[in-house]
């Protein structure tokens, strides 16, 4: 299921023994565009402290109730490593966070979530010793690739032949917990029209220029299938989108990976 990232803001995070707070922002990996963490505003419960929650801990999404149920206790979250979400999150911070919860590192494999396609496939407690964990944390690079979806909203979109619009939102796949599409508002060129582009077509993101560079022409984007927030994203619409741009869809690539895993006996 796809949901607009903005609609997740304010969702209640419920632990096994009570509410933790509400979703504030999403942190995505700017290389894979996977949602690595949700920042949670704990309100008065933890004195206004913001904490990180990994999609690996999400057990169930209750859309009608606007609630995410997580397989954590309030005490676990209370004692979790203190990370300042207003500053860049380093790889050491991530390693300490994942180690605390007993989750494996998502950067240790070839797929969207390292050795797995979905975060649920990584929710396996680690048996590594504290010494091994500390050594691995020390070796990790400080270069993390986390960006706030809120901060990137509004970035200009630079096509192969000039500017085309700006980032207006993100569509999140709640099974893979990945940004599947970026909403591009083109109203400065074609009033009222919005289109979707895949992160796979992005060549680079310039944080200093606040620009997203995409390997498509303005004409191609102009003639792309229109997107309206009120419309559901169906497989038929996705097929039209990928056919228009002449690019292979993500589900075929994932199916190929799964097939190769099956043949290799993994």
Structural overview:
- Residues 125-130 have low confidence and may be disordered.
- This protein starts with a strand and ends with a helix.
- Helices cover 24% and strands 30% of the residues.
- It has eight helices and 14 strands.
- It has helices at residues 5-8, 74-78, 91-101, 130-139, 149-152, 218-222, 235-245, 250-264, and strands at residues 2-4, 12-15, 18-29, 35-41, 50-53, 58-62, 67-70, 146-148, 156-159, 162-173, 178-185, 194-197, 202-206, 211-214.
- It is an alpha+beta fold and 266 residues long.
- β3 (18-29) and β4 (35-41) form a beta hairpin.
- It folds into two domains: 2-147, PRC-barrel domain (SH3 type barrels), CATH 2.30.30.240; 155-253, Alpha-Beta Complex (Photosynthetic Reaction Center, Chain H, domain 2), CATH 3.90.50.
- The strands form two sheets. Strands 1, 9, 10, 11, 12, 13 and 14 form a seven-stranded mixed beta sheet that branches.
Write the H/E string, N to C: EHEEEEEEHHHEHEEEEEEHHH
Number of helices: 8
What is the beta-strand fraction?
A: 25-35%
CATH class annotation of the largest domain? Mainly Beta
Spans with pLDDT under 50 lasting ≥5 residues? 125-130
Largest sheet: 7 strands, mixed
At the fourth CATH level, what is the homologous superfamily of the largest domain?
PRC-barrel domain
CATH architectural label of the largest domain: Roll
What name does the CATH topology of the largest domain carry?
SH3 type barrels
**What's the Cα radius of gyration?**
19 Å
């Amino acid at each position: 299921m796809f949901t607009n990232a903005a609609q997740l803001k304010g969702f209640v995070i419920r632990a096994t023994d009570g509410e933790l707070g509400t979703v504030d922002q999403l942190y995505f990996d700017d290389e894979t565009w996977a949602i690595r963490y949700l920042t949670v505003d704990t309100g008065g419960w933890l004195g206004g402290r913001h904490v990180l929650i990994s999609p690996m801990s999400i057990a169930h999404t209750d859309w009608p109730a606007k609630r995410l149920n997580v397989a954590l206790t309030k005490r676990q979250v209370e004692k979790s490593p203190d990370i300042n979400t207003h500053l860049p999150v380093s790889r050491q911070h991530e390693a300490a966070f994942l180690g605390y919860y007993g989750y494996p590192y998502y950067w240790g494999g070839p797929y969207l979530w390292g050795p797995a396609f979905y975060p649920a496939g990584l929710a396996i407690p680690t048996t590594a010793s504290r010494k091994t964990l500390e050594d691995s944390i020390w070796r990790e690079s400080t270069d993390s690739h986390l960006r706030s979806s809120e901060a990137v909203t509004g970035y200009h979109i630079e096509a192969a032949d000039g500017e085309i619009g700006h980032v207006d939102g993100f569509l999140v796949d709640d099974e893979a917990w990945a940004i599947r599409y970026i909403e591009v508002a083109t109203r400065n060129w074609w009033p009222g029209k919005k289109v979707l582009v895949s992160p796979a077509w992005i060549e680079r993101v310039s944080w200093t220029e606040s620009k997203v560079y995409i390997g498509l022409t303005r004409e191609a984007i102009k003639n792309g299938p229109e997107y309206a927030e009120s419309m559901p994203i169906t497989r038929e619409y996705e097929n039209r989108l990928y056919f228009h741009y002449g690019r292979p869809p993500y589900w075929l690539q994932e199916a190929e990976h799964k097939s190769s895993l099956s043949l290799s006996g993994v």
